[in-house]
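subagent[fold] <- orchestrator: predict structure for attached chain, return tokens only, no commentary.
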Amino acid sequence: MTIKYMNSDLLHKSLKQHFGFGRFKGEQESIIHNILDGNNTFVLMPTGGGKSLCYQLPALMQEGTAIVISPLIALMKNQVDALRSYSSNDSITHFLNSSLNKAETTKVREDVLKGKTKLLYVAPETLTKEDNIEFFQQIKISFYAIDEAHCISEWGHDFRPEYRRLRPTIEKIGIAPIIALTATATLKVQHDIQKNLGIPNADLYKASFNRENLYYEIRPKVNATKEIIKIIKNNPRKSIIIYCLSRKKVEELAQTLQVNDIKALAYHAGMDANTRAKHQDEFLMEDVDVIVATIAFGMGIDKPDVRFVIHYDIPKSLESYYQETGRAGRDGGEGQCIAFYSYKDIQKLEKFMQGKPVAEQEIGKQLLIETASFAESSICRRITLLNYFGEDIEPCGNCDNCKYPKERFEGQEYVSIALETIQEMQEKFKAELIAEVIVGSENSEIKSHNLHLLKHYGAGSEHDVKFWTAVLRQSLIGRFIEKEIDNYGLIFLTELGEQFIKNPHPYTLIRHVNYEESEEEAQNNAMVSSSGDPKLVKMLKDLRKKIAKQKDIPPYVIFQDTSLDEMSIHYPLTEEELSNISGVGSGKVSRYGEPFLQLINQYVEDNQIERPDDLVVRTVVKKSGDKLQIIKSIDRQVPLNEIADSLGIELEALIKKLEAIVYSGTKIDIAYYIESEIDEDKIDDLFDYFMDVDDDNISDALDEFEEEGFTEDEIRLVRIMFISEVAN
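subagent[fold] -> orchestrator:
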């Protein structure tokens, strides 16, 4: 039996002392107990669920230094600034990475060796350097925390190869408990993480992925720029992130917003580091309201009061969508997630996969099918999204499909046809091909497998493939069918599905929606607002912003909006009363409290305010439906190197010949091919890149465009066209 490190009273006392909170959220307390007991731990918790506190508090309570492996320099700085704001001692936490000069690095090492530093944030590249390994071997390490652990998995949406070298590095430094944390991980990704870190039997804590304060809405991509401007104009001074897939669209949209008197900035990996950092800081410091960005932006920030996350382009996967929308409303307040969708965007993304290895193409295509099904579904958005992560809930009432339900119809006949077709196809095929068999499509794949000879071939020809794809998707949600994890995307019948075939019963389906047509603008979803004194809240925010500028830190690092709201309700006049405000600990009182207390005291006196008798501490309401699901490790990973034939072999040979031609000085015109195979925005980005760099090294170009997922073949082809047009 596991012995708890300490009783709950002491743990709650430490929570209040260090962070100013009166109670834990969700499974935080159990997770922290498990870490303090020295156990390997896997934490799967949505954005805004409080993952950071799960390793920060035990690190502050234990002897030694916790090593936190984090993927981005900006994220480390953000975490360190936030943690220092809770303490009067800056040495309590440091980051160690390439951004530090020699003197700064020496200072960090001295503080760590003296035992002053309880949390040290490092990049995986920093951890693996030999001189750093020797340094880490000199200190007592309480545990290793791997943040954004989905970066480890080749099946994750943000794969980072250097993360896969963490386990051997840890063994060199010295074994200590390992805590892996992520906000998005399907069962496949989870298993890959645990296997690679060598913690297959880690205690799993899986919080609900349900973020009840987030409103999900998919709109047709009709006049999207105009619609976005309306949203921003109707929500003045609110922090908004807009995601686009290409750098070109980011620049265009940011400029359009600026000329419409909107304080907006662009952010993408093509900008120099100083400009990116400047734009990020201006957004965090609330000098601008809107950031228009590629996926290069987001993981590096911890801004709790983002009110809108808007997708101008639909993301490549549901994991990406969930991760990006999760950056809205992290403080539990308003969070609106609006995506503009056109099926043409899905087709464009499918083109991007051409030339990639076969296995990678198949995975990417399946992810796009999931995304398209989600966008076009009339089922509760939250049900669909949470089902993707293995969680069941009731309809949420807080998404467009719940608020504005679409036509429903009796679907028993259609579900029967779909399930019987899957059975007849021996459960060996994917949803798209199943739908094509049902409508009687004529293509080589159907004929090569003799599927045109099946009884159900053409059984649903009165409807199109989109209709049957929607039927299959709703059958998946209804648990009549499931997808193979090993053989990604293959559809098979569940016991419930087999029973439905034997004994069909009435089953309601929802009418497919044509997202190519315009529809009326949905009403803005008004969320909760402060119930306190709005005049005082504004004064407190102005003071917070002034102090933030003086200290060169984001305003929310000082006090979050929810704490300011509570101050405007209870009017604390003393340090003791201020420390009772949610989110305000003793460290924050001593560091920031005095000017806020002066302001509140003066405000109460000037306005002759009668304060409440008791300063009641507000707590975060536990979300309904939260439950712990411990899933046993089942390793069903599909190796990416099992590729029978790569379509890139012949193309690679051709590309080499074309390179020899243009580098010899001959001008050739392959624009007709490139423009049909590669997205126009990608071509423009690559042209701009090659125009600015000192040389056209392919490795450098691959590094530059890694986050956008450009393939080597795409870069080589555009380089050929560039050399031909510009140099020849």
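orchestrator: received. Logging for downstream: The longest helix spans residues 586-606. The two ends are 75 Å apart (CA to CA).
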